[in-house]
């Protein structure tokens, strides 16, 4: 029985190239294609799939959001991410999902069969470029792990306030943004400092600026729910 493959990538040339390679194999069967995250999820609901080749950067739900949906639904689908390593935070989030493989987009056609054969045998495939990327960014990954753990302790409102602090807004400006009193925002600032083990409002600002990219990415949903 052939292993069923779903290809999710918004670049037609990538999809066509992968299909052309897989069609020459008697081991794999491409059962569907998707050009964005929402389409991918709808296909997965109706199409039995063993392995998904999933682009990290897609419109209408990116590959990370699709991966989280697959994990949340406890689907027995092996995830192989296709990445260009362009956005570290997206790569980090995908890596945290413990996928079965990472393919670099530039070499995907050359590496795809080797990658799939390894994954089919219940092993994990990381391209040499991905291994080098992980080694190079090891310290940044450790920092993300530490900050992510700390931010997980914050409430939705506290994450929202911290996001605005990172954007250098004053207490009164944040109060106007979230339709709360300045006193309420000060209480949020106090609780954030306590949870993050930070002493003093100036140090909170320093923390927010120092870890700006992490905070903005991790608190995006909180801001969207303002």
Fold and architecture overview:
The structure is a single chain. With 226 residues, the protein is an alpha/beta fold. It folds into two domains: 3-136, Response regulator (Rossmann fold); 143-224, Orthogonal Bundle (Arc Repressor Mutant, subunit A), CATH 1.10.10.10. It contains 13 helices and six strands. A six-stranded parallel β-sheet has the order 2-1-3-4-5-6, with helices on both faces. Strand 4 (78-83), helix 4 (88-96) and strand 5 form a beta-alpha-beta unit. Helix 2 (37-46) runs parallel beside helix 3 (63-72) and helix 8 packs antiparallel against helix 12. The protein is elongated and about 65 Å long. The N and C termini lie far apart (50 Å). The mean pLDDT is 91.
Tally of contiguous helical segments = 13
Number of strands: 6
What CATH first level of the largest domain would be assigned? Alpha Beta
Strand arrangement within the widest β-sheet reads 2-1-3-4-5-6
**Gap between N and C termini:** 50 Å
Summarize the main sheet: 6 strands, parallel
Q: Mean pLDDT across all residues, rounded?
A: 91
What percent of residues adopt helix (DSSP H or I)? Answer: 55-70%
Strand content: 5-15%
Low-confidence segments, given as residue ranges, are: none
At the fourth level of CATH, the homologous superfamily of the largest domain is Response regulator
What name does CATH use for the topology of the largest domain? Rossmann fold
In N-to-C order, the SSE pattern is EHEHEHEHEHEHHHHHHHH
Number of domains: 2
**Global Rg:** 21 Å
The CATH architecture of the largest domain can be given as 3-Layer(aba) Sandwich
Would you tell me the structural class of the helices and strands? alpha/beta
What best-fitting shape do the alpha-carbon axes yield?
A: elongated
